[in-house]
Amino acid sequence: MNISRTWAMPHSDTFSVKPIGEFVKKYLANSKISVDPFARNKQWATYTNDLNPETLAEYHLDALEFLEGLAEQKVNADLVIFDPPYSPRQLAECYKQIGRKATMQDTQAKSWSDWKNAIANITDKNSIVLSFGWNTVGMGAKRGFEIAEILMVCHGGQHNDTICMAETRLTKRVPDLWESAPLLAFSHLQENPALEVLSTPPTSG
Ligand SMILES: C[S@@+](CC[C@H](N)C(=O)[O-])C[C@H]1O[C@@H](n2cnc3c(N)ncnc32)[C@H](O)[C@@H]1O
């Protein structure tokens, strides 16, 4: 794992901080299909989204809805950029800007883990996820990821560092058996009704 530290002035647009922008661009240079669910005005990825309609992102959906839509379209990203609000307070501020009140549910840790689970559904073995924030939780080993690089950017004074992390997925995504092999899925389910990977059988009609 490569760990480094540098200094740069803070900026509300994360990737406008020079070393952070360079970190992102280094991974984008080797990417064919990239996804940025919290893009704000950066049009760097193949698919860009931001809840705020006044930003330059291509889509203006809630990140979860956007990521689930990509999964339905069978998008397989080799790079996902995860630069969400870093705290419940930042999230509430983003929502306020678009006239939406953040609920208790919005600001719970579950929002961040739901986004990560949705990112896992559009990545596969060898995909890279870049995470930005104030900790090194990232996608984590539980979702099959290993840390490849950490860049700590100190902003001085009372500012928190921005921690930039690149993680590589080591595991293959479990195929949706109901789509690829429904008979096999049915027999697995009969043998073990608690099997989670099968999700739910398709409904008729
Ligand atoms: C940290 S900023 C991203 C900055 C961007 N990476 C840049 O370098 O300019 C987080 C962005 O997430 C957006 N956002 C907040 N909550 C969201 C949600 N639930 N779904 C989609 N976008 C959201 C905000 O509007 C904000 O632009």
- Output the radius of gyration: 18 Å
CATH class of the largest domain: Alpha Beta
Instruction: Report the structural category.
Output: alpha/beta
CATH topology of the largest domain: Rossmann fold
Number of strands: 7
What molecules are bound to this protein? Answer: S-adenosylmethionine
Residues in β-strands, percent: 15-25%
Note down, in words, how this protein is organized.
This protein is of the alpha/beta class and 205 residues long. The chain has 2 domains: 2-172, Rossmann fold, CATH 3.40.50; 174-205, no CATH class. It contains 6 helices and 7 strands, in the order E-H-E-E-H-E-H-H-E-E-E-H-H. Strands 1-6-7-5-4-2-3 form a 7-stranded mixed sheet, covered by helices on one side. The N and C termini lie far apart (50 Å). The mean pLDDT is 92. Bound molecules: S-adenosylmethionine. S-adenosylmethionine binds next to helix 3.
